[in-house]
Amino acid sequence: MNVGLKTQILPATEAAVASAARCLAQGGLVAFPTETVYGLGTDAANARAIARLYEAKGRPSFNPLIAHIGDIGAGMRIARFNAMATKLAEAFWPGPLTLVLPRTNDCAVADLATAGLDTIAIRVPAHRIARAILRAFGGPVVAPSANLSGHVSPTSAAHVQSDLMGRIDLIVDGGAVAVGVESTIVGCFDAPMLLRPGGLPRGEIERVLGRPLARPAEDAGNEAGQPLAPGMLASHYAPRTQVRLNAGNVETNEALLAFGPEPVPGMEAAAAVMNLSSRGDLAEAAANLFGYLRALDTQGARAIAVMPVPHHGLGEAINDRLRRAAMGRDQKSARRQIGPRDLG
Ligand code: TXA
Ligand code: MG
Q: What is the pTM of this model?
């Protein structure tokens, strides 16, 4: 384990961007803000650095990483774009969309980062600091969310600190992120597939494609038995406290994760109450989701009761993450994959 490293924390200045690029070039591990969540970046071409990254996160090594690039041109050097992929990239990059595409023959990204798959996940992040770091470094940067494996994704530098202090080299603190859930992942296969709902609502993608996105068949995976998007592992986003979904009331010693303006019975006696968006705004709810789950997880409550959140737009990604949180950490070892029909 990398515990015992000296982790530097720098405010997101030009000097920090230069330090981050230098650190990446030396095989270092750098946490930086993207518009979705904080990423833990390292040089995508450096297999040793990637091995350190998996170790720092405590992540199962079969879980492939997203390569972050500065623009479509850089993407075309590592992945083969079909017409659909080009259309989506032009419509939504930079932004919270990840495309899964075949690797190019001379793709510089280490096999370890793609877990031996012949496809690669890539995206152009929209955050000013992420873009500056990518520009200064000059190559693809693989970056999973900057949390310990199994924890919720970090939406502030403080979250990164609490998970990864002493395990990584540098944290660039760019404040709270704007989107709050991870990127939407689309597999650009013969039939375009929604591999993970996320910060870009499905409807916007379908409008540009002019066709619906398929969901992977239950138990879908490649020949090696790897899940198509292992982020779909059931308990990927689990707080330690039990989570009770679609709560219409608050029971004894529960904390409440509320949504919308309406009070619920028992709320006055809740161990703690946080409202994802009291005006019922899904974008605001997405931005608050992981931070509030983390905060309620520290209250010592018996469970976190979660009020229903609508399923449309960003609600699809929010409900997906809530469902995973509710699967519980004890079921983690089972590594059951959530099937598409479970995602509702
Ligand atoms: O918003 C985001 O996407 C954030 C920021 C940092 O960019 N990153 C992120 O990375 O969420 P991570 O590693 O936590 O999730 C990446 C997901 C995983 O579910 C992984 O299995 C999937 O992408 N993935 C990566 N490569 C893939 C591939 N070739 N085929 C299918 N799924 C892939
Ligand atoms: Mg993650």
A: 0.85
